[in-house]
Known about the structure:
Blueprint: E1 9-11, E2 15-17, E3 20-27, E4 35-40, E5 45-50, E6 56-60, E7 63-68, E8 98-104, E9 108-111, E10 115-118, H1 122-129, H2 145-150, E11 160-161, H3 168-174, E12 181-188, E13 191-197, H4 201-207, E14 215-216, H5 218-226, H6 246-268, H7 270-273, E15 278-285, E16 288-294, E17 305-311, E18 317-324, H8 327-341, H9 346-353, H10 357-366
Parallel strand pairs: 5-8
Antiparallel strand pairs: 1-3, 2-3, 3-12, 4-7, 5-6, 7-10, 9-10, 11-14, 12-13, 13-18, 15-16, 16-17, 17-18
Amino acid sequence: MTGIETAGLTTGPAQVWGGIRLVPLLREAPVEGLRLHREVYEGYGAGTVTLGPRGTYTSYIPHGFVADWSGEGAGSAAYGTQLSGADGDGGARPEAVRLPRLRHHRLAKRKPGDRLRFLPLHLALEGYLALHFGGPSTAWEEWSRSALRNGLSPRAEDTYLGWSVRGLGEALRVFEIHPGQCGVMVYVSDALAAAFVVPHPEDYRLLHATLVQDLYGELVHQYAMYGAPVADFAARIADGPHLRTLGDLRAAARVQERAWRTGHDTLFAGELLDGSYAFDRVYRMGSFTLRRFLPPFARDGTGQHIGETITDHKGRVAYLKTFRLSEAQIRRGYLLRRLAAEDWHLGNTARALGTGPEELVRRIRAAGFASLLRDRGR
């Protein structure tokens, strides 16, 4: 499995609010045998997840998702979900992160029955932060003692809460949810910021507002802050002798719908749907599998995404959530991959990159990994 299979999902007409473009994803029929619900935690705050005897993951964690493949949730989308507050998003808008932290033993944890609680997006983010986390595998003289002993610990990345992405909250509030809608693609200044897919339309109606509590990258925040409003979607049907009946008009409208769908899937969403990814299986749930994925960290100027999926036995997506990486995050992933491929030997890595060791050291420092290098002045 190297790609994201979106069979069964079709693109609906986009809606625009300022610089935010929301593109609905529709299913003719829900995914059978899987429902997705929300697990709300008291208050809002930072969460700490135990990764092992010596490792933890800490981030803002407002809620968890519960995947239910028991079949008992077929008649009700609200199992495991607590809603409060007039806005229906599980509570009032958080103004600050509260401490002490909530503690979670795992990023994905089995619940009674055929249910799994997992922390949306954090599975993907932890996978990115853990990329070659162990640091140098060989004690080359260029690496510091702390790098050989602790690797990349601690590793941190900056993200922005959806409330701080200008226009996103308002766009979600006024967005029309379509019949059969099971997902959405969020664009900021027409750059793909996130994709979100669930198995059932009722699940989406309950989880639609949670997008403002998700985490977004630095690039998305900047585009929302400084980008100009984007053009709205408009279909134009030329008048003529071929339009004589309502059936003719309906057929012409369908042509416009197909043209929009083709343009979106190839131009707007191509960077996500056409990409090749490295998938890591997290948990098997009957005929469904929860995975997280990383991009190839190619330096070709295209947007790249990390994320997580739940797929059926045919590889079709039942659940999808993505996070767009910034250029700096792509560079860090690319650099770590190249270092690991050359067994962390600076000379060999520099030759593979077509540069010199001094320039490679400069890149390592610029990427924020200066603590890995040995201090020559001591």
